[in-house]
Write a structure and sequence with these properties.
Layout (H helix, E strand, L loop, with lengths): L2 E2 L13 E3 L3 E4 L6 E4 L6 E4 L3 E17 L5 E10 L2 E2 L3 E6 L19 E4 L2 E18 L8 E10 L17 E2 L17 H17 L8 H8 L10 H8 L5 E7 L3 H9 L4 E6 H4 L9 E9 L5 E4 L14 E4 L1 H9 L4 E7 L14
Parallel strand pairs: 1-3, 2-6
Antiparallel strand pairs: 3-12, 4-5, 5-11, 6-11, 6-12, 7-8, 7-9, 7-11, 10-11, 13-16, 14-19, 15-16, 15-19, 16-17, 17-18
């Protein structure tokens, strides 16, 4: 179970940090957060106690599930203790369902001697273990405040390598029936691999949970996750935040260890959205990384990966359908480009999967 239960009472960064087990945790109880009001404003700050990971890390991805009614919004931040001092709080995204008052966007230009923000990833100059996260809740003019459902924190040390574990062949030879969509079915869809992948998974859960509100097509999803600062629809936490607006789902950005983790999720009937290098996935000779999102839906009898690939001609042509098989080795190489990043989207009523403690290497 990945839920992080925090004790009640306010905590300061000078106190002993809470233990952060493993490399990914979900926070669903906020009783241990210090709640204050930002000076001179109505913004409510929810600040976690200091947390300490078992292993040093140099990249942090923060994702969130929140509701922001009306003109309310949230900004999410994190800081780390490195070289004996605390860094400033870096912004990892401003989120709102409606953007006419509170802008939904990443924050550019965050770089100093301690680290930098690469759109949705905090990268430190030196590895750290202690960190804090903060949610800044801006109410609507009528006082309606956002509702924070959950936070997900994923840590990795990009300087360390990981040895893939043996595959779980018990899940080979089957696949999930996930709806298939091409991003090119839409005039604006050339760069819509992420929202199209997400919409396929939302429609999958719509059918399984009998939840018609999850039946979201790519255009609506793209509008809901667009980041004007980054200039596209591929902001990782924005995609999971959109899925996490629905009460029937939880959704987070997670960095896994290997395809064994994906096999475990498929065994639980959870399709997995992978962030990959398209050139490596299609075994091209180009060395430049071309970011792409696909949905892993199963494994062949030989262990290759069944994938719903949104970068498919529309209408489809023979041999280039949305559902296709990619060699296992090609998927591994392509996925490594993002440090094995996924969108984990699952029912909120089911326990979070127990990913390995060292899964994010």
């Amino acid at each position: 179970m990945l839920a992080l239960l925090l004790p009640s009472g306010s905590r300061s960064s000078a106190q002993k940090p809470e233990e952060f087990k493993g490399s990914f945790q979900v926070i669903t109880r906020f009783s241990g957060f210090q709640v204050t009001t930002q000076a001179g404003s109505k913004v409510i700050l929810w600040t976690s106690p200091p947390m300490r990971s078992a292993k040093p890390w140099n990249e942090l991805v923060l994702s969130w599930n929140a509701r922001t009614p009306g003109a309310s919004g949230c900004e999410f931040r994190s800081r780390a203790k490195t070289s004996g001092h605390w860094t400033p709080y870096y912004s990892l995204g401003r989120w709102a369902e409606q953007t006419n008052a509170f802008l939904r966007q990443s924050v550019a230009g965050q770089k100093d001697a301690d680290g930098e923000v690469l759109t949705d990833v905090l990268r430190l100059s030196q590895a750290a273990q202690e960190f804090q996260v903060r949610a800044e809740l801006t109410p609507d003019n009528d006082g309606t405040t956002p509702t924070l459902r959950a936070l997900g924190v994923s840590l990795i040390n990009t300087a360390e390598a990981s040895t893939p574990r043996p595959a779980d062949s018990s899940v080979w030879g089957g696949r999930l029936e996930v709806p298939q969509s091409s991003q090119h079915a839409h005039p604006e869809g050339k760069a819509w691999c992420s929202p199209t992948s997400l919409s396929m998974v939302l429609r999958y859960w719509s059918a399984r949970l009998r939840a018609p509100e999850l039946d979201q097509e790519a255009p609506a999803t793209a509008r809901a996750v667009f980041d004007p600062v980054w200039g596209g629809t591929g902001n990782w936490p924005f995609n999971t935040a959109y899925a996490g607006e629905f009460e029937s789902l939880f959704a987070f950005v997670v960095r896994l260890r290997d395809l064994r983790d994906v096999e475990d999720l498929i065994a639980r009937k959870i399709p997995v959205i992978l962030s990959v290098d398209l050139n490596a996935l299609r075994e091209r000779t180009r060395k430049q990384i071309e970011g792409h999102l696909v949905v892993a839906v199963g494994f062949t009898a030989k262990g290759d990966v069944w994938v719903n690939d949104p970068d498919t001609p529309h209408p489809p042509i023979p041999g280039r359908t949305v559902l296709r098989v990619y060699p296992r080795e090609a998927v591994e190489r392509a996925w490594t480009a993002s440090h094995r990043t996924i969108y984990l989207v699952q029912p909120s009523t089911e326990p979070m999967p127990s990913l390995p403690a060292d899964s994010a290497q």
